[in-house]
Amino acid sequence: MQTTRMEPLCEYCAKIPFNPHVLNQGGSKSWDLGSGLRVKGSRCPFCQLVALSVFEYGRYKADPPLPLSEMQRVFITWDARGGQGRRGAFVFWSGDEDDDAHPTICFGQDTTVDSESADCYLKSFLGSTIDLEMISSWLTQCSTNHGSRCAALTLSTPTAGSDSKTQHRLVKEAIPGLDHLRLINVQENRITKHIVLPRYATLSYIWGGTANFRLTKGNEAALSSYGILRTENSSGSFKLPRTIREAIELVRGLGLHYLWVDALCLVQNDPRELQVGVDVMDRIYECSWLTIAAASGHDANAGLPGVRQDSRRERKLCREVLPGVRLGLEYSLNSLLKHSVYRTRAWTFQEELLSRRVLYFVPGKVVFRCREVQLSETCVEPGHKGPGMQDGLAISVMDAIHMREPTKDFVTTLEHYTRLSLSHQGDALRAMAGLMRRFSEALGSQIVQGLPTSIFDWFLLFTGSDDGISLSRRPEFPSYSWAGWRGGVKFQFPSNRLLGGETIRSRWIDWSTRDPTGEIHIFTPSSSHPVDPFRIPDHVIINESNTKPSAYVFSSQTKFPRSYPLLNFWTLAVHFEMSIYRSLEGWSYGRAEIVLQEGTNSRRCGFVDMDGFEEMDFFERPGPFEFILLSTVYKVWTVEYHVMLLEWSDGIAERRGIGILEQDAIQHSLGPGPVWKEILLA
């Protein structure tokens, strides 16, 4: 039998000691492999792995690096704590801080030069189907050994083995708001109702791209018939998308009986049931035994590669670079998820965030993550389960769900969530409903259009994030809320404590909302956010008889947005000219100066970050522009105001930006001068 001759290492790679024990002595090390052109043309087996690593790195970057052939020098680094299980790995160094995008070069399990165990090393081969027995063992070990961290957060007293506490509880106790829970019975191939909570799995997947079959009032009786959802029945009126069919097969193969899928377990044409289901969806995912994350495709027909025979190709994972030394590429879960369609969707955000165990189907492999460990089917299981690596969502977002600092954690969550995409813009609040309910409880505050009322002043101070993309108007929601704008936002997040020489202390606005019927709802101030003695700044001249909402009858010509309440309040309005920066990048992108006229001269007296400036002609109109004062900012040497830029139409205003105005500019306002007025803000 003819064997393939192993190519020798090149003179550069021959200097690298391919022995994990030797490499791990003394920490990280780097080697210069010469020019990219040399590496690309080399027949050296390690150079070829490096070239493949560079190519794969470019595939996962929004701004790909230089082609390998154009790189002056190529450096490879040994990261002693890199790779699966932190056993160490080689990493192509690009100078990029986004380390997660780099595939690592790891040792394979057949490497014989290492006297230590092969735990977390790459397997030699990946089959065309997943190993159900291996996945079942992961679930059993987690349930048996991990205790409270991997138990549902909704449990009152989680302990080791506490999964049993979730089961056999009444649904209305485990998931307040629901009297029963519909589930797909994967053994009987039909939909069943439950008032006692059984062990079940959930599916987190991407809608769209296919005619998605749904539960309706008209087919509910039929879908409860025995065998109606048999997955081998690929024809007929009850044909399911491939992802759902394969999820049913997977759950059955794991020995579970029940699966929850939103499209089939909530009546999609019953608005009341749908709203209740959306409101408690966080608890549905949190109480599930396992969440299956279909993250390898673009729609509901992408499937779960590896569940069915030959649904993915067999792969060799390693190659021999020296006798007894095998190496291969390993991709972190984060690098595979970061640019997936799955990770960009708003609906899957809380599903992934709240699930205590997730089985990810990502390109090329299956990965299991719980709150203690992360395991990949491409790696040898560690004999000892150490602390889990949060290689999914950003650690700050994962920590935020515990709400130890609820205000800060809500900001962190919203700043991540607003960067995600929605197929239907009207779902901006619905896709966050469960998380917002939890934050409402943690803050002890109502939430109005996504903003907590107890610290309402602060949460109005959002602007576009620093990614160079302008916010665009989402008309289904009010302009005063982050939900009223498409695009990532950031919050100023001030506090009553000094932060970098700045604090907010003065508030004078009594907030209220006015619904389409004219009914007024006044916010109840939180006792944890008392108004301080310096509430009213010197230049805010208040007419104390005009601080509460006035009687107001909308005429037939007035455009009252029927889908959300107006914000109703009194404050001081001023008028100034603006000078818009024309830079297309950097800190000044989307920012305008507020200009104070002093005789024939003008000077800057503030700035405003403009909303929707790329899509609105409002900013091209001649001034002056109207600003309203929101709160006072006390700095070390000066006092300023947070201001909101307004655009009016038929007696109702919309927000067009948030900015800062110097205190002494107020008295120089253009006509009609500083005026105390009532604002109706949509």
UniProtKB/TrEMBL annotation:
InterPro entries reported for this sequence: HET
Domain of life: Eukaryota
Domain Heterokaryon incompatibility span(s) in chain numbering: 200-351
Record protein name field: Heterokaryon incompatibility protein-domain-containing protein
Organism: Podospora aff. communis PSN243
